[in-house]
Peptidase S8/S53 domain-containing protein
Amino acid sequence: MKDLDYHFTSGRSFCLRFEDTPSKDGAQLNITARSAAKAIRAAIVQGFQAISMSWTIDPPKDDRERQDLENAVVEAANANILMFCSARDKGAHNTPTYPSKATGKIFTIGDANSSGASVDYVGDASELSYTFPGDKVEVDSGPTRRTQSEVVDGSSVATALAAGLAALILYCIQVRIFLAKDSEKQKAREAYKKLKQHEGTVKAFDAVETKKESNHKFLKVWEVFGKSVEQKDQKPQGEWLQLVADVGTRLCVKIY
């Protein structure tokens, strides 16, 4: 999934900056609940299909701020926006945090090591929806390669990859709709509509084989996309889009 963002031909991404305040000891910056709620509602207004929320917030002490944040998350869920949030990287003594605390229609993502198992500081793996690479992940500078690559860690990295995978699957289904025969287009459109809902994306993710070491939470995406990449080298360029559509078809197998 390296360079994922640079391979989208028709996708758009937006970054929203939150308000933050220094902690009491000044060692870190904490996101304010009110700015998080505003950002989520801005995503709803803009009609986002997916939100990567690579942050956690402790339940606000102010009841009004807490309720406002919770309402914003629920509003996004009701708008069928796919939401991906980070697990709290604080070890086994994790307490529920926002945004994952607000609704069941949200993916809580933890980071995994190279074996697929969640790393120790993620805490209770049973609270995770899935795990994605987040331990020593190499990130490069993009197509220009003007700066050196760097290694990053944490559930925030894994969360971004999970949201990227969801967007990639939606793209594959869009290609499937574009290439489908008239008799098959309606079925493809129905699959796309279901995929844009939380339950549909769960089924698409569950169509991907998992690693036993991760308690079946780490998706072996290379088994799906890697095979298509190998086939690409054996087919003329005019057939490459069909390979993308075929991936979309395979990932919809549990939706119908």
In short: Helices lie at 33-46, 63-78, 155-179, 182-195, 198-206, 222-232, 240-251. The longest helix spans residues 155-179.
